[in-house]
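Write out the bound-state structure for erythose-4-phosphate.
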Amino acid sequence: MTTANQRIRAIDPIQPPSALLLKYPLSGTAESLVNSTRNAISNILHKRDDRLLVIAGPCSVHDPKSALEYAKRLAELRQLHAADLEVVMRVYFEKPRTTIGWKGLINDPDLNQSFNVDKGLDVARKLLLDINQLGVPAGCEFLDAVTGQYYADLVSWGAIGARTTESQIHRELASGLSCPIGFKNGTKGDVDIAADAVIAARAPHIFLSPTEEGTTALFTTAGNEDGHIILRGGIQPNYDAKSVADAIKILDKRSIDTGIMIDMSHANSEKQHRNQLKVGQSIAEQLSAGNHDIVSCMIESHLVEGKQAIADRSSLVYGQSITDACIGFDDTEDLLATLAKAVQARRQCQAR
Ligand SMILES: O=C[C@H](O)[C@H](O)COP(=O)(O)O
Ligand SMILES: C=C(OP(=O)(O)O)C(=O)O
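---
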């Protein structure tokens, strides 16, 4: 008996990123959408563009068909509100769990614990390409340090989640990602760790990572100037004006000039999806009153409101979340209109 791999049950090779990139190459449409959106987001974060970045979409993607239908509907709203909002679809394939549970489409695309990761990566890349082809930019959470190699070229904005913001590995990863990156405050509400993450990711790092060909290499990153914090609540919500002002003090102390994103869901909604409307209303009021520190927000929304238990694909409600509960599309439509009006009101404040 050797001393290595004593707790490893299997090692199954999968395709390297280069194989998938060859199968679904970046199209000209996607390339220009991703580049222009990253630019627009950077300008919003650094307050060179007075619009609001809105990341809206399902808590997790489990069914590419409904995700694509959502993208088609969101494409219309993106166009409609383009003067006031930069709308990006939340396309989350990797789910961090509090303990255990379904870890997302890449990890288990068939929802049956068969863990066909090769298929998951294929479906995820193809879907991102299709969504970009519709003219809708995508935002993803980078949870796994390796899987991004398979699809990061199709991502316009990325998140590091509440459970990983304090992780050095994720900060290093963020320092080399091409898109702007948001860092959530910790699950208990600690905003300092998100501000620390922005500073850490702004610096260059040197670390090991697999290449597109699947070999291990030493990567040297340039650092990511487009890092920002995301207020997602903790022991209590932190979307109100006082919490935003407190967060700004934390950013000022570290000379961080990027604005704040407010996540309407998670601990800010106290996991009651309809509370997102209340959070959205508060954001709209703060913007209308002239707040320039809030530059962005996140909405968990799907075609059908609520959530359902994970089950056999054939018995699932089409277009409804299997992770956190989401608001439905009609409410999303109203919420985006409210936010667009609030941005217009904020402009009027400035003009006065
Ligand atoms: O966004 C989804 C969930 O809030 C997060 O992944 C944690 O989920 P869990 O507490 O159900 O595991
Ligand atoms: C898991 C998520 O959020 P958080 O990291 O804030 O819990 C999420 O946005 O899907």
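---
The first strand starts at residue 52 and ends at 57.
Residues 59, 95-98, 101, 266, 323-324 surround erythose-4-phosphate (ligand 1) (CB under 6 Å).
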